Amino acid sequence: MTVGVRKENITIVLNKPKYPGNIGSVARCAKNMGVEKVMVVGSPPADRENILRMATHGAADVVDGVRCFDDLGEALSGFNYVAGTTSRVGRARRPNLHPRELAAELIDLSQNNEVALLFGPEDFGLTNDEIKYCHSLVTIPTAEAMKSINLSHAVMILCYEIFVAGRAEREVFTPKLATLRELEGMYGQIQGLLTRVGFISPENTDHRMMNIRRFLSRVKLYSREVRVVRGVCRQLDWYCGRNKKT
User: Fold this and answer.
1) Which of 55, 57, 50, 53 lies closest to 12 in space, CA to CA?
2) Residues 123 and 229 in one domain
3) Which of 34, 48, 50, 86 has the most CB atoms in a 10 Å sphere around its CB?
4) Are 238 and 197 spatial neighbours (Cβ–Cβ below 8 Å)?
């Protein structure tokens, strides 16, 4: 069976947007390309009149359906795949995908998985602590003289590539992946075990765990595989405790 992108399984997640009008502009851009779910993390959207004005009448239903969260981890906990956007590079940031590469991956992933496209604040973008939730990072290429892109423009570019990719049908193989909630539980268990055996120093957990997250995010883990990893961690933790007593 050949299929295209299931845009109903894709959600735009705006983390701490600074300007209410941008929420409306994002809603309009997303709906133009067939993506109709938007979430906002941070303070609840204010100035609803401005939001609706920027969204125009055509995207008013998207604005009405915006879900709001206080915490990013909570907002993303139900998603199976999170793609974060960034214009910055560095050791803490993986090799980044081109928007077209991400869109091609979503043909497959979006069939059985809830996908979040995560955007940071307009001025600073996503922090290193926030990108730990991402399975992949995507960077929109720009001319050297102009690296920053308006939030709604960035959303439009990604949604356009997804819209175009949706027309190029192909075979589907990826079943439903583990949710972020399941992955975070696994990472917490791994961190506790590796700290206990001395592989991770309590003073340097973030750096070590970021490398482990980066390594495991290359593998599309299913729920049953996460349960296996957690079972191994529990058994090792029990064994270390028994060994210590003897």
Assistant:
1) 55
2) no
3) 86
4) no
156: left (phi over 0), alpha (psi -120 to 50) or beta: alpha
Fill in the DSSP letter of residue 150. Answer: -
pTM of the model: 0.82
* Euclidean distance between CA atoms 139 and 86, whole angstroms: 5
Pairing mode, strands 37-41 and 67-69: parallel
Rounded to whole angstroms, how far apart are CA atoms 91 and 141? 19
Q: Provide the residue range defining the domain that includes 24.
A: 2-171
Give the residue from 186, 203, 184 showing the smallest Cα distance to 132: 184
Overall number of domains in the chain: 2
Half-sphere exposure of 89 (CA within 13 A, CB side): 8
How does pLDDT run across 191-245, given as a tens digit for each residue?
999 998 888 888 778 888 888 888 888 888 989 999 999 999 999 988 887 666 5
